Amino acid sequence: MFPKYDVIVVGAGHAGCEAAAAAANLGSKTLLITMNMQTIAQMSCNPAMGGIAKGQIVREIDALGGYSGIVSDKSMIQFRMLNKSKGPAMWSPRTQNDRHLFASTWRETLENIQNLDIWQDSVCGLLVSRGTLQGVKTNLGIEILGKTVVLTNGTFLNGLIHIGEKNFGGGRMGESKASGITEQLVELGFETDRLKTGTPPRLDGRSIDYSKTEQQNGDDDIIGFSYLEKNRPKTQKCCWITYTNTEVHDILKTGFDRSPMFQGRIEGVGPRYCPSIEDKINRFAERDRHQLFIEPEGWNTNEIYLNGFSTSLPEEVQYKALRLIPGLENVKMYRPGYAIEYDYFPPTQLNYNLETKLIKNLFFAGQINGTTGYEEAACQGLMAGINAHQNANQKEAFTLKRSEAYIGVLIDDLINKGTDEPYRMFTSRAEYRTILRQDNADIRLTEKSNQIGLASEERLNKVKDKIESTETLINKLKKTSLSPQQINPFLQSIDNALLTEKVNSIKVLLRPQISLLQLAEHSEEIKNLIQDVPRETIEQAEILLKYETYIEKEKELVEKAGTLEELIIPENFKYEKLNSLSTEALQKFIKIKPRTLGQASRISGVNPSDIQILMVHMGR
To answer: 10-31 in b/e burial notation, b at 16+ Cβ within 10 A?
Structure first.
């Protein structure tokens, strides 16, 4: 019934969709197996993409030829660029999305990709022979052969849902858990553990009094995620902000004695940076209120997602507490919030290409690796899909360095440091964030992806045009001067030092709080320069000019750090012969098997002295 596939992807969440699409678009005969074809690319938690650091990841996925950015743009109901008051390294795009349109757009995209088959079934085991992956077996008793397999099981591996004192098996509300895979992998020698995540109650928007909340509008200038397509809505939907209060907290506390988290029924560790509401009022007892975001779930639905109110307390406690929140006094619930506990595999068991060290041609991506968030899952899926294709066709692994992408930071963190709590990306995790901006992801990554055959020529040509037009604009600005008569009225209006003589336009542009668009309003010459120039080119030129010194310093740091990355550790290096290594470093080196001194230096628990010792012995 089934041919032998090059790549089999298990699970059709954000990671699975990107993995299957990438492998098939690269030319591999690919099979995507999902438990339910009606929930492909489902937004299990909040109906939004991007945000701080996550928005950079979505733009990187798009620059590499993935689909998350395109799908997000097609299904957006609101767009905001976060952190605009800070430097461009911190700017982070975010979309509010139509949950159903997002999923249907992804499914339509997948169904139109050549080389990609979809099969509805549940995978209960792997076919392994002599440490090499051979295929999968399903609950229908079918054995499907494949050269490579990518596991993107999300929260389904032995998933357990908790609401108060009730618990029942499930991958998410209304869907079955997946059994068999964890048990087999443990038998094969893999380490496993448990994590948890949660979701808030869904509300009936018709029962909310929005006059008691703060309105949050989208940006007038809708930038979006994709560098390739420009699908922008003509209108946007509002979000709103409200707050908990001490009365809400008191009601929530009445359910603590039935809380699965506080009573020890949940063994898994939850996300530190997205805690449940009961966790927040317990950990931050000094605060008398917490911010909540009222987020619509789509264009044509009344369903509301109450961001910030994730909980696993009994449903009646949830309901009583909700009705004490301003604007929600008469609220109706569609369904209660819940927590879900699931198996994951510490990611130190992976190589840089996301292939497992124990089983050749087996790849892990997404929450199975201990991450949380659609964006973190999607980028792993993309990289695993690419590398499954590369393996199936005996091609070199495709990896990204920390200095090249947030995706590189994420994967490097996972395999070197591991995680014992759901890993979430932040800009602070990237030491080179000045050069890892959202605006230049296409410049950083599209050519690399094009070289392996994923990013299209159309994408690459757009990047080349952007680079060329940016250089042209910068050169023209260098030849343009501003006179005191032209610009002083504007400078005076913003309480800025006045010009006493004609100066180069760039000198004025370098002043804080002055933009190129502002100068164009007061200089006919600059207005003419940028009249037909794309917005992204104007933004790129301004960033490169204003932050040139910082960018160059960061590039120097990258070059210095690159020295350790070039020092390759022999594959069978005998660490146990180095008596002077710390015990922890010895154990970590043997377990992780770093391929370079740079990687060795980033392993959690390894000291600079351990690296010095390793370097000396390698020199010998």
So the answer is: bbbbbbbbbbbbbbbbbebbbb
Say if residue 265's pLDDT is above 80: no
Nearest CA to 580 out of 610, 619, 606 is that of 610
Span 162-169, mean pLDDT?
89
Q: Does the pLDDT of residue 620 top 60, yes or no? A: no
By C-alpha distance, which of 444, 439, 370 is closest to 407?
Answer: 444
Domain 202-339 class, CATH top level: mainly beta
Query: What residues does CATH 2.40.30.260 cover in the chain?
Result: 202-339
Q: What radius of gyration, in Å, describes the C-alpha atoms of the chain?
A: 26
HSE-up of 29 (CA within 13 Å, CB side)?
A: 9
CATH number of 457-551: 1.10.10.1800
| φ, ψ at 128 (rounded to 5°) | -125, 135
Say what the pTM is.
0.93
Tell me how crowded residue 417 is: count the other CB atoms within 10 A of its CB: 17
Quickly list H helices, 255-314: 277-283
Choosing among 3.40.140.10, 3.30.930.10, 3.40.47.10, 1.10.150.570, the CATH entry for 566-619 is 1.10.150.570
User: Is the separation of the CB atoms in 24 and 6 below 8 Å?
Assistant: no
Range scoring the smallest mean pLDDT among 218-232, 351-365, 426-440: 218-232
Q: List the one residue out of 525, 545, 446 whose CA is nearest residue 537.
A: 545
Answer yes or no: is pLDDT of 358 > 70: yes
Longest dimension (CA), the chain: 83
Nearest alpha carbon to residue 342 among 417, 272, 271, 414:
271
Cα 99 from Cα 75, distance rounded (Å): 8
What sections of 406-479 are H helices per DSSP? 406-417, 441-452, 457-478
Q: How many CB atoms within 10 Å of residue 569?
A: 18
